[in-house]
């Protein structure tokens, strides 16, 4: 978990946010309003909500592009539950909130550092690009436990596309 979380106010310009993220070499900032965490902006948000739609970043603020409501965990949260939450919500940055205050942020990189054995279970990139079996009809993902209309076989398990995307980055 990263303890020193970069935050911006809802009124901060997207240009300033991009400069901060580049300068600090970070992939996200937590958006605050009156010191309360209210949203998050990741690199993907910059691409999807600014660049891909030809928006004018100098005319946008954090409030315009932030992801909300903010999905969070508490410091004592079980790591597997945090991973499931990240997979289910397709997020790579998970703010940690303690007693209403931002205490840190958990990233996919943190998870992989804490549990390097996960990397050993992943096939090589070349194998991941290969053919996969798909199961049509309802089934339960063996990672997140959600019922999905289609699953793919991945490393001997039946998983949903969201979990597959999360694992293969």
From TrEMBL:
Domain CBS, first and last residues per copy: 1-59, 66-121
Gene3D superfamilies the record matches: CBS-domain
Binding-site residues, Zn(2+): 141, 144, 160, 163
MF GO annotations: metal ion binding
Family matches, as SMART domains: CBS
Key words of the record: CBS domain, Iron, Metal-binding, Zinc
Keyword match Metal-binding: yes
Binding site for Fe cation: 141, 144, 160, 163
Domain ACP-type MB positions: 136-169
InterPro entries: ACP_MB, CBS_dom, CBS_dom_sf, Diverse_CBS-Domain
Name listed for the protein in its UniProt record: Inosine-5-monophosphate dehydrogenase
UniProt source species: candidate division MSBL1 archaeon SCGC-AAA259E19
